[in-house]
Amino acid sequence: MKTTGTSQDSSPLKINNGGRAAALIRYILLGGGGLGLWFVIYEQLLPLAKFLTYSLLKLTPGSHLAGTLQFFLYESPKVLMLLILVVFGVGIIRSFFTPEKTRRILAGRRESVGNVLAAALGIVTPFCSCSAVPLFIGFVTAGVPLGVTFSFLISSPMVNEIALVLLYGLLGWKVAAIYLVTGLLIAIFSGWVIGRLKLEHFIEDWVLKIRNDVNDLPEQKLRWPDRFRQGGAAVRDIVGKVWPYMLAGIAIGAGIHGYVPENFMAALMGKAAWWSVPAAVAIGVPMYSNAAGIVPIVQALLEKGAALGTVLAFMMSVIALSMPEMVILRKVLKPRLIGVFIGVVSCGILIVGYLFNLLF
Amino acid sequence: MKIKIMGPGCANCEKLAALAQQAVTETGSKAEIEKVSDFQEMARAGVMSTPALTIDGEIKCVGRVPDKEEIMAWLR
Hints:
The structure holds two protein chains of two kinds. In chain A, α2 packs antiparallel against α10 (about 225-260). Chain A is mainly alpha-helical. Chain A contains 16 helices and no strands. By secondary structure, chain B is an alpha+beta fold. Chain B has one domain (about 1-75): Glutaredoxin, CATH 3.40.30. Chain B is about 40% helix and about 25% strand. Chain B has three helices and four strands, in the order βαβαββα. Chain B has a four-stranded mixed sheet with strand order 2-1-3-4, with helices on both faces. In chain B, α1 (about 10-25) links the parallel β1 and β2 (about 30-35). The longest helix of chain B is centred in the N-terminal third of the chain and has 17 residues, at about 10-25. The radius of gyration of chain B is 11 Å and the shape is globular. Chains A and B meet through α3 and α5 of A and α2 of B.
């Protein structure tokens, strides 16, 4: 566990407070022990799933039911464990960032550099979509350019730790990396385009009239034990919320894995079907699901012959653009600007979809 | 004393409102609790991540649900 480096706390390790140091040591020991235990259990998941399927339930290897069941019994604990580990880590990283700090970094930035920074900060800044409107107002009134604000608003939901963990766990690190890079590029590019189009007058008038002097709140002083606690809180909060979606997604994925014939999706979502990318985006935009539910289905589709670009486009449009978010944003954006937002992001996703169908 | 809970009404805002209510009851404070879901008012108060809690116009916390003990300390 790394405790040096980026902490801006005055001196989290000072021994003048014995209790605090003891708490830190306790957390590190607990963390190290927990991590070791995690790996031991993780290694046992596949043998356990096989044992349950073939020895305990005596299912015939190669049958539809056995394939489905083994898939479910292996993938669901595996992904759940990965999720807990990564959400905990990201929770600790996020304790170094706040929307207020991000706003300070982005305010007055010129575009391009600002777009890149905003997309990157979108990953690590704690932000829930119910804060989209206050955050938008807070950014824009503090002098963060409109396009830069959009780069943040696009990257934050699209490139998130849940999507990346599931992609890594179910499809491997290459697909996860592709998703991370293309997701960031779409956020940077779409924000930049929106900035170029000079659409500031399509923000609702009352927003522009708000002149709050940016009264930055005093930074909360966090110590390492506080950060560990925040990581734990993130696990309870996020994993507690997404696990039913994830299990449902894996169950559907397991069903497809076991029962749908090979290459079934090739005609519908394969490379040859040029119209499948726009169709995937058109279906995905109004749909809303979190990454936890969608990735297991995506994996099963890929396995049955769907093309990577088509599937990525579908996943991105489901996660990044959703009806509920548009309804919320309508409070601060005029319909034209919402239309441009959806249009530009969809175009970005289309390009990514076609590009990957071409390359792979 | 006037406590305002700011947020559009998602799960975390409800949690914070319930905790604030408990804290008020347990400290025997005469503070009044008001829920604010109007974005203009939030913006004017300088709140940009929810849920947020203000006491007599002063922002006590934003973007997280504090625990009950923390709220009780603010009430004293």
